[in-house]
Structure formats: C-alpha cells, structure tokens
Amino acid sequence: MKKVLVVLVTLLAFVSAQVAINAQEKMEKKMEGQKEGKEVLKSVSCDPTCGFMVRSHDEKELTDIIMTHAKKVHNKDLTEKDVKGMMKPVKKMEKKGEMMEKMEHKGMKMEKKGEKMEQKEMKMEKKEGTEEKKEEMKKPG
Known about the structure:
The structure is a single chain. The chain is built from four helices and three strands; from the N terminus they run αββααβα. 71% of the residues lie in helices and 7% in strands. The protein has a domain at 37-91. It has a three-stranded antiparallel β-sheet with strand order 2-1-3, with helices on one face.
C-alpha cells in the first residue's frame, strides 16, 4: 500500500511539473511572438507629401504592402531590411483625438502651402500687369 501511495504521489508531482512546464512554454511563445511583431501593431508611413500609411500586426504583410506601394507609386525598389527599418510600433494609448490633431496639423500645413501658392500667383499677375502697362506706355498714342 505504501508503494502504491509513493507511486501515486510521484506521478502526481510529475504531472503537475509537466503542466507547469507547458504553461511556461506557452507564455514564452507568446512573449516571443510579441518580440517578433506578431502581436504588436506596427505602422509604416510614406513621405508626408504622399500621405500613405499602413498598420498591421503581421510584419510580412506590412513589408509586402510597403514594397508594392514603393514600386508602383514611387518607382523605388525597397528591401525587406529597408521596410523593417521604417516600421514603428503603434502606441496603445494613441487616441483618436491625437490622430485628429495630427490630421488637422497636416491640413494646416497644406493650407499654408495653398496660401503661398496664391501669393505667388498674385505676384505673377501683378508683375504681368506691370509689364502690360509698360508696353502700353511705349506704344505711340
């Protein structure tokens, strides 16, 4: 009877240890996945003038999309290493309000660019008007 009890306790200890080891391995795999970018949301943004931005948990998907965009839109060949260097983890706390502020800021920059273009156009029109007046003055009466 003692032998059976010892065997059962030993077996119970072995099973418990195995369950703990399996749980630890599962946790380590999950942590590795986060380190490899499988769990972490990442983003890549193109040049601000282009405005293209993509987010994904899957680095392979992100890489494929960016390489395709670069080739089709900008006629550039990027390597996977180039794209990985462009990847940034997305902050979990990034709020819609912050995104809206960024978009508004970008919109303000675009408005300023538009204002500058309008000013240049006005200067050109003014210059053209001045040149026309000079030519009219040169014409005999």
